[in-house]
Amino acid sequence: MIAADSELRSLLTDADRQKLSAICGDGVRFDEPLAPYTSWKIGGPADAWVVAENEEQLAEVMRLCARRKLPWFVLGSGSNLLIGDGGVRGLVLRLAGEFAAIDVNDSGVEVIVRAGASAAMSLLTAKAASAGAIGIGSLAGIPGSVGGSLRMNAGTDREIGDFVREVWVQSPAKPQAHPVSVHYYYRHTSLARDAIVSRVTLAFERGQAQAVREEMQERLVRRKRTQPIALPNAGSCFRNPEGDKAARLIEAAGAKGWREGGAEVSALHANFITNTGSASAKDVASLLARVRRAVNEKFGVDLQLEVHLVGVFIE
Ligand SMILES: Cc1cc2nc3c(=O)[nH]c(=O)nc-3n(C[C@H](O)[C@H](O)[C@H](O)COP(=O)(O)OP(=O)(O)OC[C@H]3O[C@@H](n4cnc5c(N)ncnc54)[C@H](O)[C@@H]3O)c2cc1C
């Protein structure tokens, strides 16, 4: 599909631009390319790239979006996203500053971790492991933010939702941070579409720090061996279907090594697509469609995307 001119034109007025700059100062840029902010290194420009440093700034931005009916999208670490080559109309929000805080409290029985939504899961897991948080290894090596991981219910044999005690969100309808109750499913949650996670509390049973750290280390080493992390990628592209593995089906369909432009199905892990240097979103989207078709034709299984597609896709 060819994108219409209207899909590529900024939705912002000069007044919107001025208001955004007044709220977030230097944290605002216009027509900002998004590729550098995603692990695939792919994606066209955002009308506005808006970095909110605290809950008050975010609330102000939410109020503006509600008043002006501006579309927005919140980008965490960009490790589970395919952003279209035509970019994103409206605002792309990034949390930073106070949202990156991590506080670990050891009661002797439990390890309680309070984290802002932009905190890196890598740092959170390292800190929690040092306090002996049992089960934290299942979240180790996931290159996302806390907010993105919560939205995705990221994990391996256990998921972040298994450890959540409290989630606070903000939205255009209710801009002040407030607690919500969330249900967790395989790689998705009941979180409202317009909710931005601002902070999270996780609780773990407390064990021996050394044993927890060693287990985590083993998992990290295994990841390095089995995942093509030297090239830009977005982790597993498809969800595992009930009772099977997407990677197994893709490999059995003969798709390992398939290419579209600069995108390639990894020879190391068939559910990963790597950017070999110059892949566009169009290349990746074509390859995803080809793989999905092949698995469906061969095994009658309709794979569902795990990565989120965002923005305008151009033929
Ligand atoms: C090498 C590699 C390995 C990976 N391994 C795993 C794995 O083992 N298990 C696993 O589950 N995933 C894995 N992933 C996928 C990815 O890391 C996770 O899904 C991660 O949790 C996404 O977090 P993010 O901050 O990057 O989210 P993004 O990719 O930025 O966003 C993902 C979604 O979350 C939303 N979002 C982001 N921040 C917020 C917020 N504050 N509030 C509300 N919504 C928000 C976005 O709008 C988007 O819809 C892997 C990815 C890579 C590249």
Describe it:
With 315 residues, the protein is α+β, with helices and mostly antiparallel strands. The protein has 3 domains: 5-98, Uridine Diphospho-n-acetylenolpyruvylglucosamine Reductase, domain 2 (2-Layer Sandwich), CATH 3.30.43; 100-226, Uridine Diphospho-n-acetylenolpyruvylglucosamine Reductase, domain 3; 246-310, UDP-N-acetylenolpyruvoylglucosamine reductase, C-terminal domain (Uridine Diphospho-n-acetylenolpyruvylglucosamine Reductase, domain 1), CATH 3.90.78.10. The protein is built from 8 helices and 16 strands. The strands form 5 sheets. A 5-stranded antiparallel β-sheet has the order 6-7-12-8-9. A hairpin with a 7-residue loop joins strand 8 and strand 9. Helix 2 (14-24) packs antiparallel against helix 3 (55-68). It is globular, with a radius of gyration of 20 Å. The termini are close together. The mean pLDDT is 97.
In short:
This protein is an alpha+beta fold and 315 residues long. It is built from eight helices and 16 strands. The structure holds flavin-adenine dinucleotide (FAD).
